[in-house]
Amino acid sequence: MTLRAEIQPYTDGDGLISCQLSNGIWRTSDNGPLFTSEYFILLKENHEFLFTDIHDYTSLIDSCMTRPGCLSRAPDDQGQEAPDDYIGVLGCCHFLGITSIPRSIFIYGLKHLGNFNNKSAWTFTGESFLWRMPQLIFLSYLGTGFWFLYPLMIPLAFYTALVIASSCMNTPISDSNARHLAWFLVIGTQKSFLCRLASKIWWKRLRKHYGDEGLRAVDKIYFKDHPFIRYQINKWEMGGYL
Q1: Would you give the end-to-end CA distance of the chain in angstroms?
Q2: Contacts (Cβ under 8 Å, ≥6 apart) of 93
Q3: Could you read off the pLDDT of 138-160 as tens digits, one per residue?
Q4: Domain range annotation of the chain
Q5: Which has more confidence, 197 or 20?
Q6: Beta carbons of 75 and 14 less than 8 angstroms apart
Q7: What span, in angstroms and rounded, lies between the C-alpha atoms of 108 and 131?
Q8: What is the pLDDT of residues 106-136, one digit of tens each?
Q9: Other Cβ atoms within 10 Å of 27 Cβ, number
Q10: How far is it, in rounded angstroms, from Cα 200 to Cα 60?
């Protein structure tokens, strides 16, 4: 079996990946963009990636944009999006080398002062002000090609590296959600030297807490039963992210 074959029953009617059985009929998750991003990352890590997958992933994420750069949980969903899907999508884009989506998110954030309100572009709320998380600013900036802004991003690079290095230090082992999101941040910031160094600390702590199972143990808690568990790969098994 392959991941591509095993994931079919977990694909919903919008083409997004779910954490539960969907069989292409209904939406069973509020984090379709996040799980879809994990799926395409694992395709590449397991050498199942096809040349059409970049187009397929980009099309799926574009279909979830309320407005260019403003992500929603599913196509035509006007509910407020949370930071987790943004972190997943941006992490996957940087891992796959996609620049169009991070650029649109970063530009949207600049134009709207970090406010990503799905219902009304200029209505500010605590939930919609996603750039309250400085690491999300840096993650959306990476890969945009706006090198003239790099001096302004240096403090954010230090902050993001600190977030990665300290992530889940005192988090109970049963809390898989925090580690799942941290993994997206780790693989999405490998273009930053500081974040690469910080990720070594994160991987070492992950192995200390979960042993050689690492991310597979995290996914077993997070998903209970899902193809991702069988195809997840740890850094020490693949020589790290390039």
Answers
A1: 27
A2: 99, 101, 102, 143, 188
A3: 999 998 889 899 999 999 999 99
A4: 3-238
A5: 197
A6: yes
A7: 11
A8: 999 999 999 999 999 999 999 999 999 999 9
A9: 16
A10: 32
